[in-house]
């Protein structure tokens, strides 16, 4: 789960990371009021789940409260990578001396959280890693012992020669690590970590990505989810316990299992079609899930054909068949449907479908070809 | 022959009285797996289905029955502890079916089991099956057939699809292993390839990967350097958009890394067969068995 910059900064601040004062505004008047209380130059920053906000014009320096109002007017409502900006963060503008990058990710190779720090901050760290990898120091952490001071100091001295700054940075890294663990992150970063002309360290931008598997045991973190910044159909699907990702094609896919769902999308593409979505109804066999899946898929006006691909293991194919019948009785389909079912209770499923006027096959390859042809307007 | 499990596998089921645990316990028993014990804290002394003794702890179960393998069907908040308990109790293989284990939990569990020399499979995996001998997990037994092909995959139903097609074509399997779809898992492709290379009964390997991480690229490197047996690979997620978690927690393209294209390139560079569609495994494997 992505959270906004202002939310990440609140978490970081609560763990002791120095963050410039800031508040969220949803209207230009609020932005002006916040800037007035600070009585200094501010940054107005779009709060959307997208990178490249600055390049898109979503981050502006404002000298006066009137300026903040004007910039907020321009930013609120603008689109950044298809996402509408609903909120801005109004934050005290820091005087920037130098900029560094400090981040932690859960690294799949070492199977540990790994710190990445670089004095080349303020820009995309992937770019630094690709072009000048020697400018990044990687430090893995054994979670059973946490981040030892010597490792934090090693990173501090990698960034700064001055011992006072190195110590300050080491402290910030320990705070960042604590926040990362407490919030259940898969990524947390401060970029840039700034040294001001007066020699103070400040985290000017912060980002956190939360592991979805943590949300059940961390309700306070789960509550940070901003549904208004997500695709409505994906919110709907999540609330119905479906894993759904909207894509741009016209073949709506309903599949059980993530690997098979991806392989189905790929096969649609292989035969010259474009998948409209990724949708995994999961392993349990519940007709309700099928009903919800069909509702979400048919709401997408781009969908010209629907493809079911079910390999019944734990999933009972007769439950899926019943779901299809129930859903289409309540809301008759306006687009053609191709059903492929095989596995547990296949004969029963076929019987249910045939009795209700559907045809179904047990072969994935032919079903995908058929769905692609139908989406193109063929038969 | 086979890898990891066979007819001598003595299984303890953690969470045997739960909804999923009890359902799959019966399935495994019907398949012929030696289910020697179950564990549910507070139900020690009872019996499952009138035959399998239930214990309060894995320690008790191992001591009383000599169980050498554990399978875990407990909910995500308790899964990390269940994996550590099994490893500490002295089984040699721990299979965690549970989906939704927080990845930070796995950063603790992984070194714990490794330091004890225990093999962990999963979490978020369908388990494994040695057709005709033993199944541990949830792979449907009837789609499998004893034979010469080793199968290893990050997926569940996609594995079933491929195994089913192989079986229908009369091509059987030594062992089918689902390593799971999480970013940190106990057993990776290389562990399985190494085991299949050593297993005299395995003559060819079918490997199903997906987007995210570098496990497949490293596996391809291993195939190139260390394997004499033919390997055919597939990657799911060629149409997946970057930055999105495709159902499996580990199936995510981060920035520009972990794409299907880079994995397929690695397969090609290692001289592996490449199955473009799931159904292409049948002919590619058949040709390599000749």
Provide a descriptive summary of the structure in words.
The complex is a heterodimer of chains A (379) and B (290). Chain A has 379 residues and is α+β, with helices and mostly antiparallel strands. Chain A folds into three domains: 72 residues, Dna Ligase, domain 1, CATH 3.30.1490; 125 residues, D-amino Acid Aminotransferase, Chain A, domain 1, CATH 3.30.470; 144 residues, 3-Layer(aba) Sandwich (Rossmann fold), CATH 3.40.50.261. Chain A is 38% helix and 25% strand. Chain A has 13 helices and 18 strands. In chain A, strands 7, 8, 9, 10, 11 and 12 form a six-stranded antiparallel beta sheet that branches. In chain A, helix 2 packs antiparallel against helix 3, helix 5 packs across helix 6 and helix 11 runs parallel beside helix 12. The longest helix of chain A has 21 residues. Chain A starts with a helix and ends with a helix. The model of chain A has no long low-confidence stretch (mean pLDDT 93). By secondary structure, chain B is α/β, with parallel strands linked by helices. Chain B has two domains: 112 residues, 3-Layer(aba) Sandwich (Rossmann fold), CATH 3.40.50; 151 residues, 3-Layer(aba) Sandwich (Rossmann fold). Helix content of chain B is 35%, strand content 22%. Chain B has nine helices and 14 strands. A seven-stranded mixed beta sheet of chain B has the order 3-4-2-1-5-6-7, with helices on both faces. In chain B, strand 6, helix 4 and strand 7 form a beta-alpha-beta unit. In chain B, helix 6 packs parallel to helix 7 and helix 7 packs parallel to helix 8. Chain B is globular and about 55 Å long. The relative contact order of chain B is 0.12. Classes of the chains: A alpha+beta (379), B alpha/beta (290).
